[in-house]
């Protein structure tokens, strides 16, 4: 096999592969053996059909498809280890009994540069976060130990109300929830209709209202009728946080003073802050990394990659539905191209940084156990069960190993980028409840 380099376009090397008569004959024999295993032709014993018969039966396809595939295998084997980004692309080919020439585009991984100055992450002011956390936790202790007094008047903000809830579908008349008892604290900043509509009403009142929910991108809505019967209303008297309150009501914490409580809460908040800030920085870097990355990549590679993606989508019967999301196929292909470049920049940047810092994909059992401890509460299972799943389920283990690997890379980048300290957004209160409706 003679190899001639015809040209270079950034990361694409064009090569011509010329096969000798002997190499073509070897490919012919391999094809004949394989066809004998697949086909039975009348008049010949199975496995004994001559090459000439197959050549007659398949015509040009014998060389242009079957022999061609064997020669391509030789090319693929010859380019292993050449740091290819995509499978070789066949540009031209001539294959017959007398000659075989195949021109191939080798799409190599492009040169990459990362400008860390373009990555600027934000971290919240630590002191403000800790102050707010301590304040929030103290408020929680008060809320949990509030003294309730029955109230005869109208429900007002900060009161607790016990209600009986019934919800019906306006579209079908079906009763979704029937006289379900629940309770709500009427916080002033809670804008849920089930809260705002109760304020100003008395025990025994029945409050009714309708709500609509968007359920599709086409704007389809579902309408529900709410019937809220107020069973009880309570004033909530919040206890003062004193040394006595700490020693008695919070006795399980084994503390003596409010100051000791605040210090403990601050330590607790600091651990949470460090963990969440680290994860926030990782997520920001991962989001900003493609924009800080430049690739010296040929348009041939981008076009080829998109064609491969489209071919795969068509094979999975998902391309038509993808195109429907856009005005036309041209826009859909443009979006695919942008997505591919964005994803490629991220992938190659992570790969480059991992190699430069000798970060390996292998993880230790200790690292897997630590990550399992994080996942356990999200999965709703015990830590021990999570550890077993992470180690024994191949799909889960692979995903966790990759996450740990990427996190190590992002932590290296975090040491190189600028961090801007920002004040806590008072309007975005952590722990605010989200209404869940059916």
Low-confidence runs of at least 5 consecutive residues: 427-438
Number of domains: 3
**Total count of helical runs of at least 4 residues:** 13
Q: Beta-sheet strand percentage?
A: 15-25%
Shape: elongated
Number of strands: 13
Radius of gyration in whole Å, from Cα? 34 Å
The main sheet comes to:
5 strands, antiparallel
N→C terminal distance: 68 Å
Helix/strand structural class: alpha+beta
- The average pLDDT score comes to 92
Can you give the helix content as a percent range? Answer: 40-55%
Structural description of this entry:
The chain is α+β, with helices and mostly antiparallel strands and 438 residues long. It folds into three domains: 108 residues, Trigger factor ribosome-binding domain (Alpha-Beta Plaits), CATH 3.30.70; 173 residues, no CATH class; 91 residues, Roll (Chitinase A, domain 3), CATH 3.10.50. 46% of the residues lie in helices and 23% in strands. Strands 7, 8, 9, 10 and 11 form a five-stranded antiparallel sheet that branches. The chain starts with a strand and ends in a 16-residue tail after the last strand. The C terminus is likely disordered.
Structure summary:
The chain has 438 residues and is of the alpha+beta class. The chain contains 13 helices and 13 strands.
